[in-house]
Amino acid sequence: MKEFIPKNLPLQQTIETTKVLKKTISANRALAKLNGVAKIIPNQAILINSLVLQEAKDSSAIENIITTHDELYLASVDMSNVSNEAKEVHHYSKALLMGFDLVKNNQLLLKKYIVAMQEELEQNDAGVRKQSGTNLKNAQTGEVIFTPPQEYETIQNLLDNLEKYINEPNENDPLVNMAIIHYQFETIHPFYDGNGRTGRIINILYLILKELLDIPILYLSRYIIKNKSDYYRLLQEVRTKDSLEEWILYMLDGVEQTSIETIELIENIYKLMEETASEVKEKLPKMYSKDLIEILFMHPYTKIDFLVERLSITRQTASKYLKELEELKIMKSIQIKNSKYFINTQLFAMLQKGI
N or C: which end of the chain has fewer CB within 10 A? Predict the structure, then answer.
C-alpha cells in the first residue's frame, strides 16, 4: 500500500461546522465542571495517583497490554512483585507525569518532550523512526490498512509543523484542536512503537497547556475502549474520505462523557474520604489526623512505611494504626511474598468499577 502523508496544519477546510460548534459547547461545559469538582479533594495527588493509573491501564489495554487492578495498584507501591504488563502500565504513568511537569513548568508542549515521553514509555532511546517498512495491519487478517510516512526527513518536518500548531494560537476551539492534533500525530506515526499511547498522553497535556485542566485527570481511554472499533474506523476515514467532522464529534463526545463519569468518581471518592474521616475520628480519636486519611487515599495499597514517613511515627505505631483500621474494616491486609500491604477496600472497589 502506498504511504499516506498527511497535510500540514492548519487544515484548509471547514472544521467548526454547526454540529461541531454545538458539541463543543456541551463538551467544554462538562470539562469545566470536572476541573472545578476536582478541587474538592484537598490533596490533588490523591486524584493524580488514582486517575493517572486508571488512564494508563486503559490506554495500554487499547494496545492489548493487559493488567489487573490488583497488579496496577500494587505496582504503584512495589514494582518487585508484578508482571511485565503492570510495569509497562507504570512506565506510561511515569511518562504522562513527566509530560505534565514539563508542560506546567514551561507552558509549551514541544517535540523533544514528546520524544522524551515515548522513551520513558518504551524504556529505550530508539526515537523517531529512521528506517522504512512500518505498516499498520488488521490484527485479525494481517492486511495492511495504512502506511504512514516512511522518510525520516518527512516525519521530522511533519513533527515540526505539528509542534508549531500545538503551541501557536489559532481560531479553533481547543477541544477541536485536540482532535486534529491526535489525528495528525497518529497519522505521522513517528515512532517504531508506543504511538497510540503517546498520542493519548498528548491529548491530556494539550488540555493542560490550554488551561482547560489543572491536573491530568481526564480518563479518556475508557471511552475509547468502549468505542474502540469507531476509534480506528474514524481515524482511517479522515485519511481515506476526509471525514473530519465525524472524527471531531467522536472526540468531543469522548471528552463530554468522560468528564461526566470522572465527576461522579471524584464526588464518590470525596464522599468516601469524608465518611472514613468521620468514622476514624469517632472510633479512633487518638489516631485520627488529616494526614492519616490522605495516606489511606493516596494509593489503594498502603504500606507501613508510608505512615512512618508521612506521620513521623515508629513502625510499631504504624503497624498498630493499620491493625486497628483493619478491625474497622476500612483496610484489609494481604501478604505477598515477604511484604505486607493494606488495601483501602472501598476505594479499590470504586476505582475498579470506574464510577
Answer: N
